[in-house]
Structures are given as structure tokens and as C-alpha cells.
Specification:
The chain has 207 residues and is α+β, with helices and mostly antiparallel strands. The protein has one domain. It is built from seven helices and five strands. A three-stranded antiparallel beta sheet has the order 1-2-5. A two-stranded antiparallel sheet has the order 3-4. Helix 2 packs across helix 5 and helix 5 packs antiparallel against helix 6. The longest helix has 37 residues. It is elongated. The two termini are 21 Å apart. InterPro entries: XrtH_assoc (IPR049823). Keywords: Membrane, Transmembrane, Transmembrane helix.
Length: 207
């Protein structure tokens, strides 16, 4: 293994714990961003069933408002309202963000791609938003009593898409997206033999 690559890999390993600590400290800010981005879309898509999203520390709470009726063991008297709170955890879907920046800071990178790098960071935030949204959909249609979302039943194909999207947004995207985005932006710098030898032109080494 080339010495240059070994040094770069060590830098990535050194950056990882620092960036995960920063990610943990910034988790309330991320939760607020996710809640703000999802509030209107989820309210519209659920026809008002999910009527409010709030950030609480590192968590996002979706408040489901129920009218009078029977919901499993829960009975809501006619003319009264009940509220259920669903919990979303952006941290579960967002560990790719510190991983992406560890790769960015530790490995060689190509110059002139700042805007593309910012867009990639935005894409990783979108991964978090997608994962949290599908987590709420999974809770609404699979975890709660069917009567809660009786007016929103999307059909079997819709339920299958929700289940698939939840698995994809939880297990696949958070791990694959940062690697794919970094490789697309700066992977060529790592593969360039001239850079590995210390003679690459136009390639920016990691600090």
C-alpha cells in the first residue's frame, strides 16, 4: 500500500471521532432543520393527521391529532381530540455526514469543487430528511392501530413502497451516500498515481 494512501487513511481515522463529536453537539440544530423542512410536507401528505412537528433536543416529534372514535385500546369521546406523539431520530440517518467530511478532510481532493461539495452536504441532509419522513410513515401505517390512518390507506403497493423506502433510508442510504458522493467528487485524486507519488498537478492534498 503506498505511503501516501496510508497517511491519508490515518488522517481519516483521526478526523472521524472529532467529527462525530461535532455531529453529536450539532444534533439539536439538525433536528430543528429536519422538523422545519418536514412540517408542511407531512401535514399536507397526511391531510392534517400529522399537524405539528417539533424538535426536542436531538429528536423530532410528530404530533398526530385524532378525533372521536375507537383506535385499538384508545377511545376518544365524540367531540373530543386526542394527540399521539411519534418520535424520529435524525442521528440514525445522518452518520454519513461526519463520515463524508472525514473523507473530505483526510483524503486527497480535487480543486475547484466547493459548490459541488456544498451540494453534496445538502444531499446528505436530504438523506436524513428522507429517513425521518419514512420513519414517521412506517410508524403511522405499520406500528399504530389501522384505525388511526384509516382515511389515508395507500393500498398494498403504497405500503410496500413505504416499507422498502424505510429500509432503504435506514440501512442503505446513510452508509452508501457519503462514500458515493465523495468518490464522485474527489475519487480521481485518490486514484491518480502521480499524486500518490507526490508529483500530481492540480490536486489538493489533505491538510
Amino acid at each position: 500500500m503506498p505511503d501516501g494512501f496510508t497517511r491519508s487513511l490515518r488522517r481519516v481515522l483521526l478526523w472521524l471521532p472529532l467529527l462525530f463529536v461535532a455531529w453529536y453537539l450539532l444534533s439539536p440544530l439538525v433536528a430543528n432543520l429536519v422538523a422545519g423542512l418536514l412540517h408542511t410536507p407531512l401535514r399536507l401528505l397526511s391531510d392534517g393527521l400529522i399537524f405539528k412537528l417539533d424538535a426536542d433536543g436531538a429528536l423530532v416529534h410528530a404530533v398526530v391529532r385524532l378525533g372521536g372514535g375507537q383506535y385499538g385500546s384508545l377511545t376518544v369521546p365524540p367531540g373530543r381530540l386526542a394527540e399521539l406523539v411519534l418520535e424520529g431520530r435524525p442521528m440514525i440517518h445522518g452518520y454519513g455526514i461526519p463520515l463524508f467530511f472525514a473523507l473530505l478532510l483526510g483524503l486527497p481532493r480535487l480543486p475547484g469543487r466547493r459548490l459541488a461539495t456544498l451540494l453534496a452536504a445538502g444531499a446528505l441532509l436530504a438523506v436524513v430528511v428522507f429517513g425521518v419522513a419514512l420513519g414517521f410513515a412506517k410508524a403511522l401505517f405499520f406500528d399504530l392501530d389501522p384505525a388511526v390512518a384509516a382515511g389515508l390507506r395507500p393500498g398494498q403497493w403504497g405500503l410496500d413502497l413505504i416499507a422498502l423506502g424505510y429500509q432503504f433510508g435506514t440501512l442503505v442510504l446513510p452508509a452508501v451516500a457519503p462514500l458515493a458522493l465523495w468518490a464522485g467528487l474527489h475519487g480521481q485524486a485518490l486514484l491518480d498515481a502521480s499524486h500518490t507519488a507526490g508529483a500530481g498537478d492540480g490536486i489538493v492534498g489533505a491538510p
